Amino acid sequence: MNPQAPSNTFDTPTNTKDWHTISSQKVVELLNSNAEEGLTSDEVIQKRKYFGRNELKQTEGRSKLSILWDQFTNIMLIMLMAIAIISAILDIRHGNFPKDSIAIFTIVILNGILGYVQESKAEKALAALKRLSSTQVKVIRDEITQQLDAEELVPGDIILLEAGVQIAADGHLIEAQNLQVSESTLTGEATAVIKDADVILGLDAPLGDRLNLVFKGTQVVKGRAKAVVTKTGMETEIGLIATMLQSVEIEPTPLQKRMTQLGNVLVTGSLTLVVLITVGGLLKSGWQIFEEILETSLSMAVAVIPEGLPAVVTVTLAIGTQKMIRRRALIRKLPAVETLGSVTTICSDKTGTLTQNKMIVQQVCTNSFDFKVTGTGYQPAGEFQGQNHERIEKEPEIVKLLEACVLCNDALLQCSRQPEKKTTTWSILGDPTEGALLSLAGKAGIFKEDLERNRPRLAEFPFDSERKRMSVIVDNADGESAYAMFVKGSPESILERSLYIQINNKPQPITEQHRQQILDTNTHLASIGLRVLGLAYKLLTEIPDIDTAEQNEQGLIWLGLVGMLDAPREEVKQAVQDCQRSGIRPVMITGDHPLTAMAIASKLNIAGTGDRVITGQEIAKMSPAELEEAVNKVSVYARVAPEHKLRIVKALQKQGEFVAMTGDGVNDAPALKQADIGIAMGITGTDVSKEASDMVLLDDNFATIVAAIEEGRVVYDNIRRFIKYILGSNIGEVLTIGAAPLLGLGSVPLSPLQILWMNLVTDGLPALALALEPAEPNVMSRQPYDPKESIFARGMGLYMVRIGIIFALLTISLMVWSYNHDLESANPDHWKTMVFTTLCLAQMGHALAVRSDTRLTIEMNFFSNPYLLGAIALTTALQISLIYVAPLRNFFETSILSPTDLLICLGFSLLVFVWVEIEKLWQRYFFTKRK
């Protein structure tokens, strides 16, 4: 606990969220600091006692040893260990080598190691957050400017900022010169924020609009400033994110819950059978055959537990990750592969995921022309679609505006050619907004290098937040005067200083009607989410001085308006339609303006015209119950802060939604971790967001999420497919083993070692091949399955019991016949090998039939899963080798079968395949009749 702070050191708690509502002078005063001299060394010592170091603190997680121990508390592994110990005692008592026990313990250890490897990856999200902390910072202390470690900062310190500096603590600006800060780590928006030290804001101003504050972990991209530190360590905005990140409790995935449920059911069923067999045997025959009864019980227990299932599931998920990588999705946590198939809601960031993260001019309006512009990215290729003018771009009015776009511009349009791939890539060096103007002009054949060759820049008035304009003076020797000044910026600001308007090829006095029309057009373009710039020019006879911007930016000639947008990705609209067809609701959560958010959402059909947009300010005022009610109806959220994203995800989960959340910034990390599937951006994403996520989009594309969900659904379908394959066989084994003593056959037909062979090899190899089964035709045209559904849902439990009974009836029939036949032979245990072989071969037919629930095997492409054919051939060959290869025969205690015996085993085995196919025909007939 912190020591009590001296009352004369600071009178206002520094965890307040209201620093943006007061002036810098008041902030300095409240923190007992001095804007010119900084804190004294004694004051720093006192404050550090109270506030501690400026660092992020991490709560302790599970130790490696604890994770390893937890693997062996799994109920199925506990049961296997108990079986191994009892089996070892019996073997040693009879003077036999305990090979069954060793085999079982080997499986237990391998499964434990497998689980440990999956869970032991350390949580690195907070470590990535810590890397955002600046190591050195310039600070004024004891009237001296000095450089020290960022961790030494305390509230009240005066820090100096300049371009390229990473801000080391939250602070209030005291003074700023053309300061621009990239706050994408906090807000998710790539555009740098222009800061203002003198502004005082309202209490409910969202984080992205707090222009008088700077935040830890953000980057100065332009200008200089002085600021007073208001918050350090865990009290900063980044610290609050770290707190949220560590407070998120990780829930087991649907697959993990289902596997736990499966284990509980299997162990309970196994113990019940053991008790029934033991009690029944003792009542019937007494204690003299207790060891035989115990041997039967142990064999049944081993048969129930699918020892190879954890490995098959893990390999299946690993195969799924490889498929997803080919579709540009990197899975960081294996269970996420299957979890994707359960997604019902995708909460997506706007910038770069739904959009191209490239500003593109959509509309141009001059006095005579109003037209749309097509094209994608920064490539200077597209059409000018206007009022029946095929060559609008050649009109003098338009040419003049496009020249202004190019000359009043600091960006560069670059072309990169890759001859080996026969591709050309266009990119921007500089501000995306200015890049959009260069691309626009390029579509009309006007390029910067050509224009500046004849009209070089001679002077400029740089953009600043007060003027909201930028002007450049260029050589105009070939024109009407020696020089020309081109201006771009806020339409209202430029229009206010315009006395003329360009009509065709010459300026004319601007009228009030012109002004009103321009303002109405500007309002309309802004209302549909476009970012609007005004452009103008002026002829000069001499180059003005650098400090005469205000007097020279008067009497301008208005050229027109340019409206631009971070346009949607072309493939996203189809991906959104695929989502909606699949029962998945896309939701947009962005830090951008509500109008811009709704414009993009409407174009992508995420939301319709007139749908409600909820802002972060509104969310802050909502109770949890109100938000939970709203999330079912609202698909667009704008101007949101990190805590709002977390609340939205939690509210959706409370409503029973299974949420995938995308993000790229530090601000997204808590919501990414809270979501059922956290999806980080691979290109623009921060290390923090990637470490907090389950999946990384390698191309930052929403359409990739939909592709990954499709793979997730396929993986879940295949997991269900091989679970019912494995457990159907296991139930058959259990019933067969249990029937032997009841029928008076004297001993169990299968040893624990033989059962392990079936569960690991004859079950395992075909099960792995079933994991590679291609997607069903309707995989993305159906609703998501309920993530809370049982592993036995939709008839699977009944199927496994039914098929298990069929397995048992067929095998028991063979067992009784072969046992009676063996009574007359020289090898009394010959019948056990026939039972063992029949069970193994029957599983091969079952593997073929289980590929589809509805289609007959002959209706499917026999070679669509060649891995299954290979697995069946290999498993059959291995099983035959246990009979005819002497060392294996001796180890597994089998007998040689005659060709006739082998054919009999094969005949009984094929009946399982025939039964499953008949079931499909019956279901088809039944459902047709019901319709």
TrEMBL record:
Keywords: ATP-binding, Cell membrane, Membrane, Nucleotide-binding, Translocase, Transmembrane, Transmembrane helix. It comes from the Bacteria. One of its GO terms (biological process) is intracellular sodium ion homeostasis. Pfam families: Cation_ATPase (PF13246), Cation_ATPase_C (PF00689), Cation_ATPase_N (PF00690), E1-E2_ATPase (PF00122). It is found in: Cell membrane. Belongs to the cation transport ATPase (P-type) (TC 3.A.3) family. Type IIA subfamily. This is Cation-translocating P-type ATPase. InterPro entries: ATPase_P-typ_cation-transptr_C, ATPase_P-typ_cation-transptr_N, ATPase_P-typ_cyto_dom_N, ATPase_P-typ_P_site, ATPase_P-typ_TM_dom_sf, ATPase_P-typ_transduc_dom_A_sf, ATPase_P-type_domA, Cation_transp_ATPase_P-type. The lineage of its organism: Bacteria, Bacillati, Cyanobacteriota, Cyanophyceae, Pleurocapsales. One of its GO terms (cellular component) is plasma membrane. One of its GO terms (molecular function) is ATP hydrolysis activity. Residues 18-92 form the Cation-transporting P-type ATPase N-terminal domain. CDD domains: P-type_ATPase_Ca_prok. Its main location: membrane. It is a multi-pass membrane protein.
